[in-house]
Write a structure and sequence with these properties.
Elements lengths: L1 E7 L2 E10 L4 E9 L7 H12 L6 E5 L4 E9 L8 H26 L5 H9 L2
Antiparallel strand pairs: 1-2, 2-3, 3-5, 4-5
Helix pairs in contact: 1-2, 1-3, 2-3
Length: 126
């Protein structure tokens, strides 16, 4: 297990890489503590689905029991023992970008009562 962290616009973001032997793979995950009021899980699931449609690498899950959003991606490691540095850089960049966009969208949906479509449109507008 290798832990890492970086600063985002919304605070520190921590992640970890975990090796799995069978099948050989390197799994990366970042968790964000995002407790939502009961009864908002369907809206959060809809937001995640819409958000995941736009991600080019990795995906989000929401673990309602723990109150955390998880960004995850796995690199298959068939016939090799080390990932390419470019793979690691791409995953880290994708995770930070996704976390920086997802947190405001989550807040728009959960605390401001916006629809998932409105929240995604708001965070993707530059």
């Amino acid at each position: 297990v290798l832990h890492c962290s970086t600063e985002t616009r919304w605070g520190e973001c921590s992640g970890m890489f975990v090796w799995r032997d069978a099948p050989a793979a390197l799994h990366f995950s970042v968790t964000q503590d995002l407790r939502a009021p009961d009864g908002r899980q369907n809206v959060i699931s809809d937001l995640l689905r819409r958000f995941n449609e736009r991600l080019w690498l990795g995906h989000f899950d929401y673990w309602s029991e723990d109150g955390v959003a998880v960004f995850r991606h796995t690199i298959p490691m068939m016939d090799r023992t080390m990932p390419d540095p470019g793979e690691v850089s791409a995953i880290l960049a994708a995770a930070v970008d996704a976390a920086e966009q997802f947190l405001p969208a989550f807040n728009f949906v959960v605390w401001a009562g916006k629809s998932p479509d409105e929240a995604v449109a708001a965070v993707l507008f530059d």
